[in-house]
Amino acid sequence: MAEVIFKDATRYFAGVDRPAVNSLNLDVPDGEFLVLVGPSGCGKSTSLRMLAGLEGVDKGSIHIGERDVTEVPPAGRDIAMVFQNYALYPHMSVAENIGFHLKIAGMNKTDREKKVREAAELLDLAQYLERKPAKLSGGQRQRVAMGRAIVREPAVFLMDEPLSNLDAKLRVQTRTQIASLQRRLGTTTIYVTHDQVEAMTMGDRVAVLKEGVLQQCDTPIGLFARPANVFVAGFIGSPAMNLLDFTADTLPSGVGLTPAQRSALTGPDVVVGVRPEAWETVNPVDGLEAVVEVVEELGSDQYLYCKVPNGVLTVRTPGMSPWQRGDRIGLKVKPDQAHLFDTATGDRLPD
Amino acid sequence: MAYKPKPAPGSRRFSPLKFIGTVVVWLVTAFNLLVLYWLIAAAFKTPIEIFTKPFALPYTWFQRGVPFRNFEYAWNQAGFGEAVVSTVLLVGLATVVTVAISAPAAYALTRFGVRGAGGLTNVIAVGMGVPFQTVVIPLFVVLSKVHLDNIYGLFIVYVALSIPFTVFLLTGFFRSLPDELEEAAAIDGASATRTFFSVMLPLARGGLITALILNAIGLWNETLLAIVFLKDQAEFTLSRALFTFYGAASYQSEYGGLIAGVALVVLPMLLLYVVLARQIITGLTLGSGK
Q1: Mutate which of A89, A92, A103, A190 to test chain B, going by most B C-beta atoms within 10 A?
Q2: pLDDT for position B284
Q3: Domain map (residue ranges) of chain B
Q4: Which residues of B touch A75 (CB under 8 A)?
Q5: What is the pTM of this model?
Q6: Which of A162, A350, B237, B284 is least enclosed, having the fewest CB within 10 Å?
Q7: What value does the mean pLDDT take over residues A54-66?
Q8: Which fold has domain B84-228+275-286?
Q9: What is the DSSP letter of B77?
Q10: Which residues on chain B are in Cβ contact (under 8 Å) with A84?
């Protein structure tokens, strides 16, 4: 049980001037499930590997609980890690894989077997203990990797995209299993993913990274409702938020700047962000006139991709709506549903 | 009746190149099989049979009720019995020691990320390109000065000459193993030594076996160095004993015994290779592709 603190943690890679992780400051309280999310190359995996001790820290420091672990080797950090490709030892049985750490730590055989059995039962692996990893399905291997982590009862779990090798259906199931397991064990967990749905559904808090810089760290609701900048606005939410360029004086009807927002603006231009579900469909004359180009019917929802003079907008309507390709519709932003950003800085204007 | 899947369109067409290739492969195979047959048959024949009926089945020794007479002669009169013991010990030890030195070396060269490791690997690989025939005389001079011009010196030379190839072969194996396994072991608290012995070495087992077999075959057949270094008949290896026997057999017309001796040298390694061929081929190609 421990909190995790990144203090100005910075990591450079040889031959690259821009740091892979740039002055990362994060404070993860004890028992929290924190998700690091971002596009590939954003530094999320590097941050996790720095915490694991697999990557050096060039500047700043990393703390686990009371301890500064910046210079502590991985074995001494009281962490367990689940790798993207699981990194199971192919020549060892499931039981040996799960118990490898305990064996190295010098635990006697009976205690070890008991612990391995408990972990295996928790993960529904008890009947596979004697098998080699090659004889397991992808989902079972994933659970063995989890078992190897939980049997240690570490201070922190580190997970590096542990679901990316599973098929879509299993990924959704395992997502819930991992989240509920973590809540039951109450162990601080840092989870890396590039999938924003995983991030939103699993994390107590989500930290969004881009090009090595932390963009925003908030609860899933906070990220969704109040994205701190244009990048977070576009990254979180599926389908992505519509980002429209306007000037401060030519905003569409229903959207206006408060005096505080106007004074916070550094240039003449404003980005108006509207989520697909924040559009209201009205008569063409009453709103932004658009032509339906593509209709995506999902049953429960329907996504319309509509052509407007300066681009294509995504609109979410209830499933089985009667829209057809080529229909002319009017679009209006629902009250208080627009997100406003300063085009020059990309930052959110104060509410 | 088993269902025969239809081949892909176009693959049935007659190709002259493929035809020639098939013919050549079968000719070479047939020739080798013939030589093998001749060797085994002649090992059971009298010299008269060998020269008058080279491809007939042996009968004289069988008629007289001593079918293994030639082998007995080679084993007892020509010193092959002692030579087998020396050879098995020498080749076995040299092979094991070579791999025991090369495996940690290859692991360190590929995995520790030490500066200059790539260059060092190349330097070791260059050792494969030096024909050992060119260094036989200096080797002998140096080793005789320290009184190692005997089977112990030969052992050292065998190990030293086998290391470059073995290290080179094993670096390919260790390089092909995923990094995550080492990282997982590090997080599990395993030391570098423990990681090597409990995680990496078992995974490189295929490579280790390949290295053992290839070295064993090479050293078993090695003759030149054995001739140079071994003077005491008690220390003779099989190939060295065969060389002496060859000289003597010409005078005594003991061609049956001589060929039985050849068979004793050739067949064990041939059998080893046939049994383990699949292992060797996967071993040689692993690490080259994905």
Answers
A1: A89
A2: 61
A3: 16-70, 84-228+275-286
A4: 186-190
A5: 0.80
A6: A350
A7: 93
A8: MetI-like fold (1.10.3720)
A9: T
A10: 180
